Amino acid sequence: MAAKESTKSTKSTEECAAPQSGFYGLADHPNHGIIASILKRKSRKFKISDEVMKMCKAVEAYKSASDNLHQSILYWLVEDPDISKQLVSVFKTDPKYKYAGQYLMTYENLMKRGRDKTKYESMEPVMKTLMALDVEQEKRIKKMVEILRPLTKFIGEDYWEYARLRKVYWESLEGYEDAITVQNKERTEQSEQATANAQKWRNDCRQKITDFIQTSIFDQKSKHAECVLKFRDEAVYFHRAMSELIPFNEGKNNSGMKAPTSK
Fold first, then answer.
1. pLDDT averaged over the chain?
2. Which class for 130: exposed (0-12), middle (13-18), buried (19 or more C-beta within 10 A)?
3. How far apart are CA 188 and CA 185, in angstroms?
4. How do residues 33-51 score in pLDDT, each as one tens digit?
5. For residue 79, which of 44, 142, 166, 247 sits 20 to 30 Å off, Cα-Cα?
């Protein structure tokens, strides 16, 4: 059973672990205004139950680790920091293959129209390979971003529902304390009923946040881990698929190794 919350407001009481700033930072989150209101600190502090305190601290630690892992994975996927940071909300890939192919196409056209009558070997095979690499890269990265969806959902959605429930719970503690204060002054039937209602609201809010943390965060950790492992496996197929697009001489490269096959 959860420990009973104190109704006394004091500067020395420990506040529940505060929600962190967002999906890689508050300023980057599309719901900046809503989240800013959730994160707004209260001037009053309350001693909450040990159960809720422990669960909230665990959520914050897990969120921090998930943020770091998710950012690292996306940066590995697309090394451009500006692209990787927004890859979930604005899908985009590194255009280096496409730009290289377009450059060679322009260069070859200029050479054909130039005064130099020397016949150069066509760069069309290289251009086709670069364009094929660009298409394959986009397809694979899109698939891998989708594989990470369970972890992404926790960071961008579930965590913020937890933060909202935590704020409502905090407001219920405040409402209960106010009701106790009024009851101590008035000692009326109405004030007693208001206190009972406030206590019920507080207990309901506490139950909602603990249930949500358990079912929507803690119980989903295995799915988060599975998607990361699946991402790892898909990364191997990604490299194989890209290597297969690079031409080999008689099925072998310069080192004598056979071309790999992708899944």
1. 76
2. buried
3. 9
4. 555 555 555 556 667 788 8
5. 247
HEC string for the chain: CCCCCCCCCCCCCCCCCCCCCCCCCHHHCCCHHHHHHHHCCCCCCCCCCHHHHHHHHHHHHHHHHHHHHHHHHHHHHCCCHHHHHCCCCCCCCCCHHHHHHHHHHHHHHHHHHCCCCCCCCCCHHHHHHHHHHHHHHHHHHHHHHHHCHHHHHHHHHHHHHHHHHHHHHHHHHHHHHHHHHHHHHHCCHHHHHHHHHHHHHHHHHHHHHHHHHHHHHHHHHHHHHHHHHHHHHHHHHHHHHHHHCCCCECCECCCCCECCCCC
Q: Rounded CA gap, 181 and 176, in Å?
A: 9
First to last CA, the chain: 51
Q: Scanning the structure block, which residue is given the tokens 């009053």?
A: 44
Contact 241, 150 (CB under 8 A): no
Name the band, by pLDDT with cuts 50, 70 and 90, for residue 2.
Answer: very low
CB 78 within 8 A of CB 84: yes
Output the pTM of the full model. Answer: 0.70
